[in-house]
Write a structure and sequence with these properties.
Largest sheet: 9 strands, mixed
Shape: globular
Length: about 425
C-alpha cells in the first residue's frame, strides 16, 4: 500500500547545513554565520529551513554548524527548544569537532553529514532530507519526499529557474521531460541555459532527498576516496547523475503560497544588495513573500518587548512611518521613516529621516541624521547629523558601499569616523 506524504515526512530526518560564512555579506558575517543573519524584522535566515521542516511534519532535525557559530547556536537554544523526545522529536546542534586537530573541520557539505552518520542512525529515519540553512523560502518538503519515493530515484534534487547571469553561484543541471537529471555542474563559469529559455538556468536549491541507507553507503564510499572534496555539489550529486539515478523536483510543485504571491518565492540573500532588497521588498503593499500568513508560520525566538512607540507631533518632528515595518521595542521619536524595516529595539531620535533603511536590532539613529538606502548592523549608534546616501564617493570612503548604492554601516566604521 502506498504511504501518504504525511507518514513519509514522519519517517524522515532533516539535516540542515548551516556552517557557511557567507563572505559576500562582508562585515555582516564577521561575527555570525550567514544562517544566523537577521531577516524580516524578527527572524533569522535559518528559521525558514527549520520552519519548513517542522511545518512539513518532519520533527527530527540536525543542524551542522561551523563558522562563528555562537549566535546561531544561542538562537536555536532560545527559540527552538520546544522539541519533546517523548513525542519522537529532536533538534541536534552538531558543531564541527576540533578536538584532535584542524582536519576535523567539516571538509565539505557531504563530510558534514558523514561525520554525524552515527547520530543520524540513532534516530532510525527511513529518509534524509539535506537542506541548506541560508535561503529564504516556504516549502512543504513532504511533497518532495513523496515524489522521491514514488519515482524510485537514488536522489531527488530541488531546483528552480534563475537568471543565467546569476547561475554561476549555484549547481546547474540539465533535465529531460521526465525530470531525470542528465547533467549537473557545480558553480560553472558559463552556466548552461534552459532549452526553452536561453536567459535562465535550472539551479539546484541545495535540497536533496535520499533513502537513509543509500545515503550512508554513498557517503562512506566518498569518505574513502582520497580524490574527493567530500561535497554534495562537487562529488556526490554528479556521481549519481552519471549513474542515471538523479531526478529533479521543481520548486513550484511544493512551494507554499498564501494566495497573495504571484509566483514561487525563493531567495539567496547572499550579497549585500540581495539582502537589502529582500528585506525592503517586505514593506511593499503586495510583497512577493507573504510572512503574515498564519497557516505556514515562520517560527523563531521572539524577545519579550513592549509595542513599538511613536512620539512627537510637530512639523518636522513627527514620529511617523510610511510603507514600513517596525518591530516591538522600537521608539520612533520625532523622526520620519519611509520604506524602512526596523528590527527589535531600534531607536530613532528627533528630526532624523530614514528612507530605504534596514536597521538590525538595537541600532540607534541620532538627531538630525539622514540615512538612505542602507543596512545598519546590530547595536550601531549613528551619530547626530550623519548623512548617508547623498554623496556616493564620500559614502564609499566611510562605509561598505555597493555598486547599486547600498551602504552597510557597522560600529567599527562609525568609530573610524573620529
Amino acid at each position: 500500500m502506498k504511504e501518504d506524504r504525511f507518514s513519509l515526512a514522519q519517517q524522515s530526518m532533516a539535516f540542515i547545513l548551516a556552517g557557511g560564512r557567507g563572505s559576500r555579506l562582508k562585515e555582516m558575517t564577521d561575527i555570525r554565520a550567514k544562517p544566523a543573519v537577521y531577516f524580516g524584522g524578527k527572524t533569522r535566515i535559518i528559521d525558514f529551513a527549520l520552519s519548513n521542516a517542522v511545518n512539513s511534519g518532519i520533527r527530527r532535525i540536525g543542524v551542522a554548524t561551523q563558522y562563528k557559530a555562537h549566535s546561531l547556536i544561542r538562537h536555536m537554544q532560545r527559540g527552538w527548544s520546544f522539541f519533546r523526545a517523548e513525542r519522537n522529536e529532536s533538534l541536534d546542534i552538531l558543531p564541527a569537532s576540533q578536538q584532535l586537530n584542524e582536519d576535523n573541520w567539516y571538509k565539505g557539505t557531504a563530510d558534514a553529514v558523514t561525520q554525524n552518520i552515527e547520530i543520524i542512525r540513532g534516530y532510525g529515519p527511513k529518509y534524509v532530507v539535506i537542506l541548506a540553512g541560508d535561503h529564504i523560502y516556504k516549502q512543504d518538503y513532504s511533497f518532495m519526499i513523496e515524489e522521491h519515493v514514488n519515482s524510485g530515484a537514488k536522489v531527488t534534487v530541488g531546483c528552480i529557474a534563475v537568471p543565467r547571469a546569476e547561475a554561476s553561484g549555484f549547481g546547474v543541471m540539465a533535465v529531460d521531460k521526465d525530470d531525470k537529471v542528465l547533467e549537473f555542474v557545480e558553480k560553472p563559469a558559463d552556466p548552461p541555459a534552459m532549452p526553452n529559455d536561453p536567459d535562465k538556468s535550472l539551479a539546484s536549491m541545495g535540497i536533496y532527498v535520499f533513502e537513509a541507507e543509500y545515503l550512508y553507503e554513498i557517503l562512506q564510499k566518498d569518505a574513502e576516496n582520497p580524490d574527493s572534496s567530500n561535497d554534495f555539489g562537487n562529488d556526490i550529486i554528479p556521481g549519481i547523475v552519471a549513474a542515471g539515478g538523479a531526478r529533479a523536483h521543481p520548486f513550484s510543485r511544493s512551494c507554499v503560497m498564501s494566495g497573495l504571491e504571484d509566483e514561487p518565492y525563493w531567495r539567496d540573500v547572499g550579497t549585500i544588495d540581495a539582502y537589502w532588497q529582500a528585506n525592503i521588498d517586505l514593506t511593499d503593499f503586495k510583497p512577493e513573500l507573504d510572512i503574515f500568513a498564519t497557516d505556514w508560520p515562520i517560527w523563531t525566538y521572539s524577545e519579550l518587548t513592549p509595542p513599538a512607540k511613536f512620539i512627537h507631533n510637530e512639523e518636522g518632528r513627527r514620529g511617523q512611518a510610511v510603507s514600513s515595518m517596525v518591530a516591538g521595542g522600537c521608539i520612533i521619536s520625532g523622526s520620519s521613516l519611509y520604506r524602512c524595516l526596523l528590527f527589535t529595539g531600534v531607536k530613532t531620535h528627533s528630526f532624523s529621516q530614514l528612507e530605504g533603511v534596514v536597521a538590525l536590532p538595537y541600532a540607534e539613529v541620532g538627531r538630525r541624521a539622514f540615512i538612505k538606502n542602507a543596512i545598519i548592523d546590530r547595536g550601531v549608534k549613528i551619530p547626530e547629523g550623519l548623512i548617508v546616501g547623498e554623496d556616493p564617493e564620500f559614502d564609499a570612503k566611510r562605509f561598505r558601499r555597493t555598486d547599486a548604492g547600498i551602504c552597510l554601516i557597522t560600529q567599527d566604521m562609525i568609530d573610524a569616523l573620529g
